[in-house]
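Protein data:
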Amino acid sequence: MLISDMYLPASAILELVRTVGLTKQVTLYQSNGDKSQGSVYKKFQHIKPDTHLGDNRHSDYDQARSNGINGE
């Protein structure tokens, strides 16, 4: 699963990740701020990932870890 808070439409985000080599079938969840608030991590507790990768210390690392997900 990809969780994105990027402003681009989902089709453009998928095209970007395909361009850099992602070939797996994935689900894209596009959010507008719920990563920053941490609510996206609560929403997906039933499929909790081992690790969440991101580029924002607060949204991708701190919020993930506060919800029991390893953030990098």
